[in-house]
Each structure stands twice: as structure tokens, then as C-alpha cells.
């Protein structure tokens, strides 16, 4: 029997009568991680991995009805044994393992296979059926080790500093920004952040993750020479806004897996593109799928058709799941994915994101 | 290779001309003359013939990644650039070659041409393993002849001129012919480009033309011309011909004909060879090649037919006779006249053609008007005369280089394009910075009027330019949401989007389903205010055929 099926409200587990990352309000929801396209408002009850509690409460409200489970702990619900296992995507992200009458399914949410120190690293879980994302499901996507990317950011920052310019780095405010802060050399100079980034830094620090000292960019006057020395982290939505004026002449960069392609880099119109993603690259997806030992693979958001066809040619029973993931401004969302709604930043519904997007000038 | 790939990266990363100039100067300052010679060649648009068949490069990428062909195609569709796709799929190297561009091109790449596939398959991986990813992509672009980066020849000229302390016009003159297939860049050749001026230079120029002076589009309403351009008396006005811009060079008893792309096209126009007898040595005339019959200019489509032919039959030469319409004199009696004012050059041209009359070479007539209003009224006749509008040339202006404005300006005052409201029915992903966005569209009009019992949309034009980045993103999103079917890279969509489509010309065509072919179609605006039912019909297009 299928332990997970696609319903208009989201991915549904019939024997357990609950939804995983539903995109419409439901009674019982199991949440893989706190990005806005997976954790949405309005569900009566939430269940998530314990390390994600701070994030979920800060984004969905302190008073949501949230139950948590440590990674690896099992909960029995209507005969379905449910447990969470690290997905390595962002703080608190989890794969959901479901076991019912000897059948095991794993829904991975979003995942990344390279460990980064800001969240528990991805752990392959053996299963019969694996539900995988496919955000970067094309062989052109192969990441360099993150240490090289951070060294590149450090070099860029140093060079801008030498030329007396601020270094403004656009990165998604939950996950990517903290990963960068954790990975760069904070001795180079002061680090300033946008108002959308700081609340998440606080949650990470409370979770025991090393995040260097950051300052709120709004506290500095335009004339402050410190700005010309600083690295500034801001969400992509800040690009082109009046908020940017305070930095005078600056160099800008964008950190995303999509920066792999020259076309997307040029379309972004930034000085530098840093190829850094919180999702698995092509070899990462294939490795993760193989590690599960699954014979059946359900593919969600991203290059669904490509990955399904490729896996079938490898002899696996693969099929696509239509979901509404991947259209959130705050995740590594995709320009050019083969799924309705899975398009560009800004295509999401307003109000779904409680973060401050922008401040006044 | 690394240094040149870095230069490519810098040029590719910016849209600022100053940043590009700086990047080129930095490169040329440090490069050896051998490397600089090849860099100038590629940057100025030179392309050697393809060195390795694309097919073989694709196969290598597929083999390296153990990829089936369909997956290569999917990747290519997402990337939108063949060399980049291949570079992303080949194994990544941890080396980056510090050897110069000249060594790479002359010792490693040029010798690849004509090698048997097995030999190439054996040799190429060894080359790839010495290149970091950016260098690899640039290298593949050099191999396939697809190297293109956003710098104009003029910008290369300026970079070299400022580095060498020369007049950019002089450098532009020396660069003529530099990117020809027949020319092989060399250290000596580069040194000549940037050498100090010599007295012999002018005498040793052979059949070389001058760099073409290009016109700018004039968009303002004519009521503002007085304020913008001054009185009409200060301007020399002609029709804007719809032909091929060309220079006739007559020196040392021989005739050369050069097209605007600095391509030598003498062989394509045998009927004009008789002019070698007519014109005195040391003459260079700037003008337009057109098909001329029944005392009037014929549609560009006819000229295009001739350009496409490999052999020119006697019948074709009779049916489609080409003439040169002369409008400027750049050299007279071996002397460079480009620093003479426009009116003086025009008088000298008129005198020259009076002395050596030939039906093959006709003067492009000047037009006079009491004021701008009067000229605007005359311009209304453009379409019926088969011209694109008017050219305005300041009487006192010198003949500049390319699109410079410092020597004076030529304005092209074109008539408004034809336009119809058409429906977007197919979309394909774009290339370069439009890669992975659906930006190349096929448009259709209805085959019957509204209210007809049954009517269908007939495709008639493809267009991909005219939208802002923001509009492109919005249209892309609509296309993804309204996709009906996918055929390879093409999607058909439920018709919902209407655009005003502009084009320069329209002709009957047997090859098109709609029965018409339009020239330079592009999107003028997105008609949010119109529904698909409001779009124009084939009858509207047929009316434009006159």
C-alpha cells in the first residue's frame, strides 16, 4: 500500500491520516523544515524534529500547536511508526521515515549531502520507497567543496575592502545566510546584516551554532567609514531597494546554486555569483537515492521529468509527484523548473512569510 | 589560457563600457605581442573555421558523464549555450594552464583541424585536463567558432588606442581586414596595430576600405527637430535606402567592394566590375548596393535572393540587376577626405560622377524642404517609394568611425514599422542571459474575422526582442502555467497573450503557412488590454502587401 499519496492539500499518509508539508491548512501536519514553502500557516497541529522548534515558532508564531521529536525517536500514530532523520538542508530539517506493516517510506523534504556545521548532516535511511526533491536535477549541477566557495567570498571581501567598498552579498535569509556566516573568515572585517537575517541568526545561536558577531545594518549612518570595510548579508529581495542606498558604492554578489550558469548570473546583474546551494547537486541526488536502497522513487519539485526518466533508465520504479514546493522566496527556488508555480522569487503568495522583507530608507 | 579566460570573465560580468575598457587594457598591458595579437582577433569578432566537429565535442561530454543523449539535450536547454554545457559536463580539472593564448591557439588548437575522429578523441581529453572550467568553456568557444563577448570593435579600438597613445581612427584603419579568415594574427601584426604613426602608412593600404561611419536612430517627433537639430538648412537630407551598405575602393587599377561587416564582396557583384575602368585610381565611395529596375529601387527580399546564391546565372543578373547608390566620397586622388565637411565631400562626389558617368553608379539624390514639417510630409511617401525613411547628415560634420558622435552625427529618421496585434502560440527557451527562460516566441493571427463560424490561429512570425527583463519573467511564468504540449525544446501554449508586433517589411512567401514573410519582426508592446479574440487577421497582413 502507498504510505504517501498526493492530494490537493499536500502529501498525505492515508493510514496515519496526516499530511507532510501541506500547502493548504489541514488538521495534522508533519513538517520537514521551516522554509515557507514547506512550513505554512494555518494547520491545527504541527509535528517536527526538535532542533527545528525555534525556527518554526519564530516564523509561524510562538503559540502554534507544535509537538517535537528528537532525531531518531519513534512515535506511533494509528499504527504508523514515524521518526525524523537529519536532512542536512537547514537547521532542524528532517527526513520523515514512515513504517507501516513492514513497509518503509522516507519523505526527504529538501536535502543536501555535504555537511556544513550549521545543522545535523544528512543521514541516509534505508527504505522501500524514497520521496526525493529534484531542485538541481540536471548533470550540469556539480558543486565545488564549500571551503573553496567560502575562500572565494573571503577573497572578494578583502579585495573590496582594499578598494574601500562595501561587499553586499545576497543570500536567502534562513539557512544560506547562517551557513555563510559560519563558513567565512570573520576576522576580515565587520559583518552587517539586513533585518530579515538577524532574527534567524539569533535562533541559530540559541541552537548552539557558531555564528560570528553581526550588526544590524540600519544602525549605521551612510557616512560611517565602517560600511566600506563591511560584509553585508541581505535577502535577494533587498536588491534594488532604497535600503541599499546607505552603502554608497558597493560590490554585490549572490550566493545560490543557480549561479552555476552564466545566463542566470548575468540576469541577476550582480558583480559576482557564488555557487553555493542548500540542495543536493546531481551526483548528490543520485548518491542519496542509491544509499536508501529504495526500489521505488517518487520525485517532487524541480526537474521532475528528467530525474524520473533517468532513474527509470537505471532500472528503478520512479514517478513524479506534483507538489507546490519550490516557490518560496526564501529557499533556493528555481528559475526554469518544469513545474507550474515553481518559478521565480516573488511568485509566492504574499503574507505567507512573516519576516520583515524590507525596511524604510 | 587562464589570463584570456579571466579577461573573458571580466568582460562577461559587466555592462559598463569603462569596466570593459579597463579589463582589456589590463590584459593587453601584460600580454605578450603573440597573445595580444590573437586576443584582438577574437575580441574584434574574428572566428577561425570550426576546428572540431560539434558532434564530437558533445559525444565527449556524454561519455565523460555517462549521459544519454536526451539528458545532454535537457542540459543544453537549461544552459542555453553549447560550449558552456559541454564545459559543465566534462570532468573538472584542478589545473589551469598559464600558457598564453597564442600557444594554445597555434600549437594546440589549430592543428586539430581535419584530424580523424579517433585521433581527436585521444588528443582532446589531455587538453581538457589542463584547463579550469572557465578556461575550458572559453577554449571550446574558440574551437567551435562561437566565441562572442559583449565588446564592439570600436571598444577594442579604443582600448588599443589609449594604451598606445594613438588616434582611435588610426587604429580602426589598421584593424580593417584584421579579422578576415585569410589573415593570421602574429606578434608583428600586433606591433603594427599599436606602432607609432608612420608616413608610409597611407600609401601601403592596398584595397582596404575605411571604417564605416554608422547612423543613430532619431526617435523624437519632428516638431522637436528645430530644437534638437537646428534649422533644416544645416542638414543634408537623403532617402534611407533599403539595401547593403558598401564601399567601392578603386586603387592601383583594381576595384574592391566591401560590405559593412568589412567583408570583401567584389565577386558577388560582377556587373559592377566595369566601374574599375570608369573610376580614377585613389577613389573610395560610400553608398548602398540595391536592386534597381524600372527606374526604382526594388525590395530588399530580391537582393537577399542574390546574396544567397553560390553561382550567379546570366538570367539572375539580368532579372535582378544591382546598382550602387553613392552618397559619400571618402578618398579622392589617393587622399583621405574624411576630415572634409559633409557638404564638401558631397560636392566632390557630384563632380566626380559628372566626370565619370555610369548607370552602374548613381547619385543618391538629396532632398530639400522649407522646414522640418515639409520634410516630414515628404517622408510620408517612403513606403510607396520603397525606402525606409530619411537620412539626416549635418552639412559641417566630418566622417566618423563606427557609432562615434564626436565627429558629427548621421541620423536615420525611419518611418514607423508595420504593426499588427498577434497571439503568442509557441515558445522556446532563449540563449545567453535569457537561458532557461522562455523568451523566443512564435506569433499567429486569425485566418478569419471575428464572428466567423470557425477560425484558427495561423503562425506567421517569430520574435524574441522588445521586452524588458521584468516582462520576460512575467511572460515566462505564464508560458509555464499555460503549456499544452512540449515538442523537444518548444512548448505550445493555450493562447492568452497578445502582443503588438512590429516589422520592417512584408512579402509574399510560399514557404510560410501564412503565405507571407515579414522582416525584422519584434515585440513593440504587450497588449494587456486585448484578448486573444481581439488579435488581427491574415487579411490585415495581406492589406499591408499593397
Automatic annotation (TrEMBL), chain A:
Key word Cell division present: no
Keywords for the protein's UniProt record, in alphabetical order: Exonuclease, Hydrolase, Ligase, Nuclease
Location of region: Disordered: 321-361
Molecular function terms, GO-annotated: exonuclease activity; ligase activity; RNA endonuclease activity
EC number: 3.1.-.-
InterPro entries cross-referenced by the UniProt entry: MBL, RibonucZ/Hydroxyglut_hydro, Xnuc_lig_assoc
Acidic residues composition-biased segments: 325-335
Keyword Nuclease appears in the UniProt entry: yes
Protein's name according to its UniProt entry: Ligase-associated DNA damage response exonuclease
UniProtKB/TrEMBL annotation, chain B:
Annotated EC: 6.5.1.1
CDD domains assigned to the protein according to its UniProt record, in alphabetical order: Adenylation_DNA_ligase_Bac1, OBF_DNA_ligase_Arch_LigB
Organism: Pseudomonas mangiferae
UniProt GO BP: cell division; DNA recombination; DNA repair; DNA replication
Catalytic reaction equation(s): ATP + (deoxyribonucleotide)n-3'-hydroxyl + 5'-phospho-(deoxyribonucleotide)m = (deoxyribonucleotide)n+m + AMP + diphosphate
Keyword list, A-Z: ATP-binding, Cell cycle, Cell division, DNA damage, DNA recombination, DNA repair, DNA replication, Ligase, Magnesium, Metal-binding, Nucleotide-binding
UniProt name for this protein: DNA ligase (ATP)
InterPro entries assigned: ATP-dep_DNA_ligase, ATP_dep_DNA_lig_pp_1105_fam, DNA_ligase_ATP-dep_C, DNA_ligase_ATP-dep_cent, DNA_ligase_ATP-dep_CS, DNA_ligase_ATP-dep_N, DNA_ligase_N_sf, NA-bd_OB-fold
Amino acid at each position: 500500500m502507498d504510505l504517501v499519496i498526493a492530494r490537493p492539500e499536500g502529501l498525505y499518509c492515508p493510514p496515519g491520516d496526516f499530511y507532510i508539508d501541506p500547502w493548504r491548512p489541514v488538521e495534522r501536519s508533519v513538517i520537514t523544515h521551516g522554509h515557507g514553502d514547506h512550513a505554512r500557516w494555518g494547520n491545527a497541529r504541527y509535528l517536527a524534529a526538535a532542533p527545528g522548534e525555534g525556527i518554526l515558532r519564530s516564523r509561524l508564531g510562538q503559540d502554534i500547536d507544535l509537538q517535537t521529536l528528537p532525531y531518531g525517536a519513534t512515535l506511533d500514530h494509528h499504527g504508523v511508526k514515524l521518526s525524523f532523520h537529519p536532512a542536512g538542508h537547514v537547521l532542524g530539517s528532517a527526513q520523515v521515515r514512515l513504517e507501516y506493516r513492514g513497509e518503509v517510506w522516507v519523505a526527504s523534504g529538501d536535502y543536501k549531502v555535504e555537511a556544513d556545521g550549521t545543522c545535523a548532516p544528512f543521514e541516509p535511511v534505508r527504505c522501500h520507497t524514497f520521496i526525493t526533491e529534484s531542485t538541481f536535477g540536471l548533470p550540469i549541477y556539480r558543486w565545488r567543496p564549500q571551503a573553496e566557495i567560502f575562500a572565494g567570498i573571503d577573497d572578494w571581501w578583502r579585495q573590496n575592502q582594499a578598494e574601500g567598498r562595501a561587499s553586499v552579498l545576497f543570500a536567502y535569509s534562513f539557512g544560506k545566510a547562517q551557513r555563510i556566516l559560519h563558513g567565512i573568515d570573520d576576522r576580515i572585517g565587520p559583518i552587517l546584516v539586513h533585518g530579515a537575517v538577524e532574527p534567524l541568526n539569533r535562533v541559530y545561536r540559541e541552537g548552539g551554532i557558531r555564528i560570528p558577531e553581526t550588526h544590524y545594518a540600519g544602525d549605521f549612518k551612510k557616512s560611517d567609514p565602517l560600511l566600506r570595510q563591511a560584509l553585508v548579508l541581505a535577502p535577494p529581495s533587498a536588491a534594488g531597494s532604497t535600503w541599499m542606498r546607505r552603502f554608497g558604492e558597493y560590490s554585490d554578489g549572490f550566493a545560490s546554486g543557480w549561479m552555476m550558469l552564466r545566463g542566470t548570473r548575468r540576469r541577476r546583474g550582480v558583480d559576482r555569483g557564488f555557487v553555493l546551494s542548500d540542495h543536493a547537486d546531481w551526483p548528490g541526488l543520485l548518491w542519496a537515492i542509491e544509499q536508501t536502497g529504495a526500489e521505488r522513487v517518487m520525485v517532487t519539485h524541480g526537474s521532475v521529468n528528467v530525474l524520473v526518466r533517468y532513474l527509470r533508465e537505471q532500472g528503478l520504479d520512479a514517478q513524479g509527484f506534483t507538489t507546490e514546493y519550490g516557490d518560496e522566496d526564501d529557499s533556493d527556488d528555481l528559475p526554469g523548473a518544469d513545474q507550474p508555480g515553481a518559478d521565480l522569487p516573488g511568485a509566492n503568495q504574499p503574507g505567507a512569510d512573516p519576516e520583515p522583507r524590507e525596511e524604510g530608507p | 589560457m587562464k589570463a584570456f579566460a579571466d579577461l573573458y570573465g571580466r568582460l562577461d560580468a559587466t555592462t559598463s563600457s569603462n569596466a570593459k575598457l579597463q579589463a582589456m587594457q589590463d590584459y593587453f598591458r601584460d600580454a605578450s605581442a603573440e597573445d595580444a595579437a590573437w586576443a584582438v582577433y577574437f575580441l574584434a569578432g574574428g572566428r577561425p573555421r570550426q576546428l572540431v566537429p560539434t558532434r564530437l565535442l558533445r559525444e565527449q561530454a556524454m561519455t565523460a558523464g555517462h549521459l544519454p543523449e536526451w539528458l545532454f539535450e535537457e542540459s543544453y536547454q537549461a544552459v542555453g549555450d553549447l560550449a558552456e554545457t559541454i564545459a559543465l559536463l566534462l570532468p573538472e580539472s584542478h589545473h589551469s594552464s598559464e600558457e598564453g593564448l597564442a600557444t594554445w591557439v597555434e600549437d594546440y588548437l589549430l592543428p586539430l583541424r581535419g584530424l580523424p575522429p579517433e585521433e581527436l578523441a585521444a588528443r582532446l581529453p589531455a587538453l581538457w585536463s589542463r584547463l579550469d572550467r572557465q578556461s575550458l568553456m572559453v577554449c571550446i568557444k574558440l574551437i567551435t567558432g562561437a566565441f562572442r563577448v559583449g565588446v564592439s570593435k570600436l571598444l577594442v579600438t579604443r582600448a588599443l588606442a589609449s594604451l598606445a597613445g594613438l588616434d582611435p581612427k588610426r587604429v580602426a584603419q589598421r584593424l580593417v581586414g584584421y579579422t578576415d579568415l585569410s589573415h593570421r594574427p602574429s606578434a608583428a601584426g600586433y606591433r603594427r596595430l599599436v606602432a607609432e604613426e608612420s608616413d608610409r602608412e597611407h600609401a601601403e593600404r592596398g584595397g582596404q576600405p575605411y571604417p564605416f561611419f554608422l547612423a543613430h536612430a532619431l526617435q523624437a517627433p519632428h516638431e522637436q527637430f528645430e530644437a534638437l537639430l537646428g534649422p533644416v538648412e544645416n542638414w543634408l537630407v537623403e532617402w534611407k535606402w533599403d539595401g547593403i551598405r558598401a564601399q567601392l575602393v578603386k586603387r592601383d587599377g583594381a576595384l574592391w567592394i566591401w560590405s559593412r561587416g568589412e567583408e570583401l564582396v567584389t565577386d558577388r557583384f560582377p556587373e559592377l566590375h566595369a566601374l574599375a575602368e570608369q573610376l580614377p585610381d585613389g577613389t573610395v565611395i560610400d553608398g548602398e548596393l540595391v536592386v534597381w529596375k524600372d527606374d526604382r529601387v526594388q525590395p530588399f527580399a530580391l537582393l537577399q535572393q542574390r546574396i544567397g546564391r553560390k553561382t550567379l546565372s546570366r538570367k539572375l543578373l539580368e532579372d535582378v540587376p544591382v546598382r550602387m547608390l553613392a552618397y559619400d566620397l571618402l578618398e579622392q586622388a589617393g587622399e583621405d577626405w574624411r576630415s572634409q565637411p559633409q557638404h564638401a565631400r558631397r560636392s566632390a562626389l557630384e563632380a566626380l560622377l559628372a566626370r565619370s558617368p555610369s548607370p552602374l553608379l548613381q547619385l543618391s539624390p538629396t532632398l530639400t524642404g522649407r522646414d522640418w514639417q515639409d520634410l516630414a510630409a515628404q517622408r510620408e511617401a517612403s513606403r510607396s517609394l520603397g525606402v525606409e525613411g530619411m537620412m539626416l547628415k549635418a552639412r559641417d560634420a566630418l566622417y566618423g568611425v563606427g557609432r562615434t558622435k564626436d565627429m558629427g552625427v548621421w541620423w536615420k529618421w525611419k518611418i514607423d514599422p508595420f504593426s499588427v496585434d498577434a497571439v503568442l502560440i509557441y515558445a522556446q527557451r532563449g540563449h545567453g542571459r535569457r537561458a532557461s527562460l522562455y523568451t523566443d516566441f512564435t506569433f499567429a493571427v486569425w485566418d478569419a474575422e471575428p464572428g466567423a463560424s470557425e477560425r484558427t490561429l495561423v503562425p506567421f512570425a517569430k520574435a524574441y526582442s522588445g521586452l524588458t527583463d521584468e516582462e520576460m519573467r512575467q511572460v515566462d511564468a505564464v508560458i509555464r502555467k499555460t503549456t499544452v504540449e512540449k515538442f523537444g525544446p518548444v512548448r505550445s501554449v493555450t493562447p492568452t497573450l497578445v502582443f503588438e508586433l512590429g516589422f520592417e517589411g512584408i512579402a509574399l512567401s510560399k514557404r510560410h503557412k501564412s503565405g507571407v514573410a515579414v522582416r525584422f519582426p519584434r515585440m513593440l508592446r504587450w497588449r494587456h488590454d486585448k484578448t486573444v479574440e481581439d488579435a488581427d487577421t491574415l487579411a490585415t497582413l495581406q492589406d499591408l502587401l499593397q
